[in-house]
Amino acid sequence: xxxxxxxxxxxxxxxxxxxxxxxxETRSQEVPTEPPRATLTARIDKAVSRRGxxxxxxxxxxxxxxxxxxxxxxxxxxxxxxxxxxxxxxSNVSGFDVFVLTLSGKNADPIxxxxxxxxxxxxxxPSERFKEEFVFLRPGKEETWSGNVDGPATPGKYxxxxxxxxxxxxxxxxxxxxxxxxxxxxxxxxxxxxxxxxK
Length: 199
Fold this sequence. Notes:
5-stranded mixed β-sheet; elongated; alpha+beta; single chain; 30% strand; Immunoglobulin-like
């Protein structure tokens, strides 16, 4: 049989086989992605505020289906408003932060309103630090922070974005500890933006 005819007969067979086996791209799309360790939502007390006025923001961190380890210092107590020595006033709770952004995503407020989960002085060994400084949120359990941020001085529409950010270098050493079971939040968890109008 001539080579050209043999190739013509093989092409339909090849196409049939291709349809029988999903390609690599299809297989990768079918692989389920791991759910997030936690999600964060932001709420504001009112959708319209006056220039330079105070904006009440509430951030809620919700543990994912496997739970999550969060900074112990992100927990809020009734004494936080008075406890300036630990850096946990109502406008500076470790682990939570709030950004006021323009609609294009630029920072509209050069002054920070939150804090990172950090500590003073030399850190203890990683396993001891993990035990002392992190707590486990059970699946679906929430951690909430409320505080005020200053509204921009220029009228217009802005985005309020909340974050939970354990942003110190040592946290990446803790992630590798077996006792974290892969559930320590070591990267920024960001909320969807909430739009506010400044008049």
